[in-house]
Design goal:
Mean pLDDT: 82
Distance between the termini: 30 Å
Oligomer: single chain
Order of helices and strands: EEEEEEEE
Number of strands: 8
Number of helices: 0
Radius of gyration: 15 Å
Structural class: mainly beta
Low-confidence stretches: 1-18
Strand order of the largest sheet: 1-2-3-4-5-6-7-8
Shape: elongated
Length: 158
Amino acid sequence: MRGFIAGLAAAAVLGTYAAGGDGWREFTGSWNATGSLRTLHLGGDRRAATGEFTGTLLLSGSSRPGVGFRAEAIAFSDTDTGMVGRAVWTDENGDKVYSEIRGDGPRKGGKVAGTFTGGTGRYAGATGAYAFTWRYVIGGEEGAVQASSVDLKGRIRP
């Protein structure tokens, strides 16, 4: 599927990590997910697909907004136009951070960009962005997918 993202697992207390003077919390991390794809062949090499993923996201960095999250994400992709989707990261307290995701798809490198669009609890009003490259393997089971991120980086202002 068009460089999709998804995944996250529980942990972290936001207040434990110091934000920079401007309130931004920078982070790096890794995102691992499993999920399923449903693909529609549109003639020639063109395909459209829907995907649903869950997994874990582990963050590092002294100002990260948490250590780990559980994530759920859905996406639609088209080999000609790219990927668009939505993701929800949930921390150990049940607080959620929402994001919109867009990608160029595996034919063009699997790059994904996310934009935070708010959240609940400590993430209410969250803004910021993140990016990474998605590496995935389609499993032997029809539609089964495993994916992991490369070079996940971002910043958030909760």
